[in-house]
Specification:
The chain is mainly α. It has five helices and no strands. Helix content is 61%, strand content 0%.
Length: 71
């Protein structure tokens, strides 16, 4: 059974960390909708294959070799 918060096992935590340092850095937004608009406006960059693969590898759930075999 996993703990309720396990950032090292949850690849989305690595993505959020990356987004907070880049797309959402130094922003003071009033509404969640504004965050959604910014992320939707950068959708091409957010779906970057290398970034997503890096987050999966960082979680330890898969290895780079596992991802290469799927390509």
């Amino acid at each position: 059974r996993l703990p309720s918060y396990a950032p090292d096992l949850n690849p989305i935590e690595t993505l959020w960390s990356s987004w907070k340092r880049t797309y959402l850095a130094n922003l003071c937004l009033d509404k969640v909708d504004e965050v959604r608009d910014i992320l939707e406006g950068n959708q091409d960059q957010l779906s970057d294959h290398d970034l997503l693969c890096g987050c999966l590898v960082a979680s330890g759930l898969v290895s780079r070799e596992d991802l290469k075999s799927d390509s």
